[in-house]
Design a protein that fits this description.
Layout lengths: L3 E7 L7 H17 L2 E7 L1 H8 L3 H18 L7 E4 L4 H10 L5 H5 L2 H10 L7 H4 L1 H11 L4 E3 L5 H17 L9 E3 L31 H9 L20 H9 L3 H13 L4 H27 L2 H30 L6
Parallel strand pairs: 1-2, 2-3, 4-5
Helix pairs in contact: 2-3, 3-13, 4-8, 4-14, 8-9, 10-13, 11-13
Bound molecules: tryptophan.
Length: 338
Amino acid sequence: MSKEIYLTGDRPTGKLHIGHYIGSLKNRVIMQDSGAYDPFVMIADTQAFTDNARNPEKIRQSLTEVALDYLAVGIDPAKTTIFVQSQIKGLFELTEYFMNLVSVARLQRNPTVKSEIAQKGFGESIPAGFLTYPVSQAADITIFRATKVPVGDDQEPMIEQTRELVRAFNNAYNTDVLVEPVGVFPPKGQGRLPGIDGNAKMSKSLGNGIYISDDADTLVKKVKAMYTDPRHINIADPGHVAGNVVFTYLDIFDPDKQRVQDLKDHYTAGGLGDMKLKKHLIDVMEAEMGPIRARREVFAKDIPAVLSMLAEGSERANAVAEKTMKDVRHAMGVDYFN
Ligand code: TRP
């Protein structure tokens, strides 16, 4: 029996942070290693151009950074097809055909796109490609006939849009060549790692992120700067756990849940200092991120090898995509000369 296909990806607009790692990359590796899937992981450079059209150098540089982040966390090119979106020409073709099956009004209702538009301050100058990127994302997913899409909660509207487009396509051309995917979302309460400043979103523009590639000293510095409880002034004062970023991180990074509970009790009662608590967080984070960082450094020594890995993955992905496109063209009746 053939394995279920999952597909997911990331825009190359910078290095990936530990929010990506906790919310998505870690789960991809677990799914990859389960052996139950045929995984595809895509560096979404075409999508990155939708809001970085005039910054190709950033995309080009981020491409290798993201690939290194993948390899470092254990996405294994022997098990996962790691590829680059722009190299799959069928994606442009399928996107163009999908474009006619969705209304402008429907695109304008996408809540994730809406909030991104507000946040990026496009004003009256929303790039057409940005408004329509969910259509291109639907092509990403369906061209590989992926049934599962492991993503963060913010991507839910994209999956819904994809499902609608699959139905619209199959209906319009009286076919069943495309399959409806489902999203695989992080477990509740584990979806999003806050920034070190306590902001719910970790992002480059807010400068509150910890990166997979951060060295040990940077990790220490960032944890020491982490937002805790402003009311906890003296060590003896009772502290608060809710909204305290150090505890949010401990909940995720400390494998010993009983120990975390004991620390929470101690902190709440008073007598546990922030510095001592942060030292412990540094230890448990370093235990997880240290080996990842070390692997990244090894891969970073041979960038040409990383690029040929991506080239091979793209070739493999292209072969799969072309098979679907043959069926798509046939269903639409545009295979005139065959
Ligand atoms: N929109 C995704 C993000 O910003 C990246 C992406 C592009 C993607 N194409 C995809 C994710 C297809 C899942 C499936 O992170």
